[in-house]
Amino acid sequence: MSTTTLSYNLISEKQRIGYEGMRSFALATSKVGDDDLQYWLNKSSDYAPGLMKAAYGTFLTDLIFLYEHDYVADLAAEAFNVNWQRTSPVGFSLCNDYNCLYITGESDHSMGMTVAGNAEDIWKFRFTCSFAYSLLEQLVGTNIWEDHNIGSVTLGLLQRYMNNESLEL
Fold first, then answer.
1. For 46, which DSSP code?
2. Which three-class secondary structure state does DSSP give residue 82?
3. Alpha carbon of 11 to those of 1, 14, 87: distances in Å?
4. Which of 63, 77, 124, 166 keeps 20 to 30 A from 116, CA to CA?
5. Residues 164, 141: Cα–Cα separation, whole Å
6. Are 82 and 116 in contact (CB under 8 A)?
């Protein structure tokens, strides 16, 4: 029997921990496009139900975020007349442990992109991609875990602003 002792001041608790957690990463060195996503979607039948299928699913969640981000970047590039390419690696992860579940970026919000165009349009492009980041985390998380209320920093701030509440968190 495996036990974990949790000590918080005077409280001590022992319990069985059968599952400690899993963390997956999706890393990209170039744009994640339709072919990349389809390649990994086609791998679903390669994994039997169990730990490997769960690991595949968590990786796929990360990959879907990167795919959606790059889709938004393509739309923004067209709207603001800029070009972008990924020139440094980018990572995204999902952490699922006995206590919590979250998806998060493992790189800065530039997402490894080099952008070419005039300065004002580059600013608009980067603002759009950064603004979308938190919303995409919520979109992907909500669609993966339909029974959970996934929050978004961006939407939370907008909601607080619309309700005339303090923007201090």
1. G
2. coil
3. 21, 10, 51
4. 63
5. 27
6. yes
